[in-house]
Amino acid sequence: MRKGLQSLLKYTFSLAIAALLFWYLYKDVDFSEMMASFRKANLNWIYLSIGLAMISHLLRAWRWNMLLEPMGYNLKTSRTFLAVMVGYLANFVVPRMGEVSRCGILKRTDDVAISRGFGSVVTERIFDMICLLAIIAFTLAIEFRRLNDFFLELFLDKATGLEENFITLIAIGIFFFVTAIVIFFLLKRNQAFLRKNKHYNKLTAFLRQLVEGITSVRKLKNPALFWVATIGIWVCYYFMTYVVFFSMESTAHLGFSAGFILLVLGGIGMATPVQGGIGAFHYLVSAGLLLYGVAEKEGVIFAFVLHTTNSIAIIGVGSVSLFLSMIIPKRNASQAYANS
Questions:
Q1: How many angstroms separate the CA atoms of 240 and 242, rounded?
Q2: What is the DSSP string of 13-79?
């Protein structure tokens, strides 16, 4: 009961933050004016953006298969695509729930152990973070002044606060480090006794499978294809934003460098712990467009068009994927672990 209440409070808080950010951005925007701007937009570029987004999701499903294959799972990309899309759909309900949800769907459709699936998702996220950091570094190199001014203004107050509490942060870090060491040695010392406990054995089995999923990248059959899929995902991410520039007069003049800044800021916005990046994505993207002289009102309309059209596509395809994953026959995709 208490855990459920905590989850509800977290969900309500994140939803409230999203709603507050969204209201703050759009409180001065006339809805009829915004819809008029949307109707004037060239929808062909928006359809292309949605198509590129779907290709990126398909590439993510293909890449996920590569991580699961070394663990003995022979999966079809079409089935992992269903799980990926259900995961994106779940993020609109509870932030960061998508990673767990898609593993649950793959357990339902192909009997993939949730622990192994989640471990492989952790690996995915690590590589995505590496790519995002590389893109940030590249964008800083070509647009240093714009990004430097933006982040200084956005995070200067927060950085000052961290500096003032530096000693406290160090003390907290040392406390958790020492606690982890103590727990490790206590577990090591009482291992023989703990092995008699079924809950301990279940936990250790889960953790072993989780680590196996995380380290599966070391056993890839074709690492080159893994990188092709990874780079392809981010190329699609870039162009699904860039092509929308041409759908509106106010942004049609923007070049490739603006696309990289919006990729970085939009990526950060989508990573924030709010449902579907709502509010945070709109704020950061519209703020990024201000750096290129796009009027604030036009910037928030652009962010609304980009986020809303792709969100509608995710909700539509994700809902169909959820329905299909519930009715398709379950199959055992495991080879090496068929009897584990």
A1: 6
A2: HHHHHHHHHHHHHHTTS-HHHHHHHHHHS-HHHHHHHHHHHHHHHHHHHHHHHHHHGGGTB---HHH
Burial 165-191 (b: 16+ CB within 10 A, else e): eeeeeeeeeeeeeeeeeeeeeeeeeee
**Would you call 221 helix, strand, or coil by DSSP?**
coil
From the CB of residue 257, how many other CB atoms can be counted at a distance below 10 Å? 13
pLDDT tens digits along 213-239:
566 667 788 889 999 999 999 999 999
Backbone phi, psi, residue 175, to 5° = -60, -50
Q: What is the pLDDT of residues 304-320, one digit of tens each?
A: 889 888 989 999 999 99
Separation between Cα atoms, residue 156 and residue 179, nearest integer Å: 32
Beta carbons within 10 angstroms of residue 324's beta carbon: 15
Which tokens is 137 given?
């570094």
pTM above 0.85, yes or no: no
Residue (of 6, 34, 40, 39) closest to 22 by Cα position: 34
